[in-house]
Amino acid sequence: MREGEGVSLAELVDERRGLEELADRLTAGDPGSRDVVDAAYRRWFGLTCAERRAVGDPGAWLADAVRALAPRPAPSGPVDAPGAADTSACRVLREALVTLSPAERAQFVLNDVFGALPRGPRSRPVPHGEHDTVVHAVRDACERADAAGLEAVLAENVTALYDSGGKVRARTRPADGPREAARSLLTLLPPRADVTMAPRSVNGRTALLVHYRGRVAAIISLTVADGRATQLWVTVNPDKLRPWNRNARP
């Protein structure tokens, strides 16, 4: 994988699930185990692009980070007074924030406070029928792995943005222009029997819900103008997708 191109949705989801299972084992099911995984991903994104390129097996690197961050059993002895020690989750978060630059720490706080499914930039809304036609065309092209067909429904100034929240190893840079945006989306969504896409209303407009093994693993929201998509916002942040999976099997 070249830096910035991303990986498939199945790989993102399976990698995250495997790390959560590892953290659960290491922490004996401590509720803070998910924070340990989040901290491991923050360490990953704290690397430079060159450092990430040099990692031969990112999954193994992240597993090592989880092992290093997992809370150790508390020593026996007198119990500290309330407030004298951090909870395991706070300790992990503090260690992760130390690795971030001031700008990255600010972005983390903003994402944590204001995180929600994006509505995209303000623009004049097109009729629902026009919007839905583009949504269905994007879905059909992705299902066929049709790069030319996908590029045909993307505007010349299209941008594809990937919202991972820093919690899965998704693409971090915007994909600008129809060729790069189409390639980024098809890299995320290669044809698989266990990956399906279905139109669904999100924030009052039709978006694509992408299911992987029966769970919502991504949401693709579109901004449309003149019959083409001008922006693709791909949400793969597991925290933002959790409400869509409340009734799904684990």
Automatic annotation (TrEMBL):
One of its GO terms (molecular function) is sigma factor activity. This is RNA polymerase subunit sigma. PANTHER family: ECF RNA POLYMERASE SIGMA FACTOR SIGI-RELATED, SIGMA 19 FACTOR. Signal peptide: none annotated.
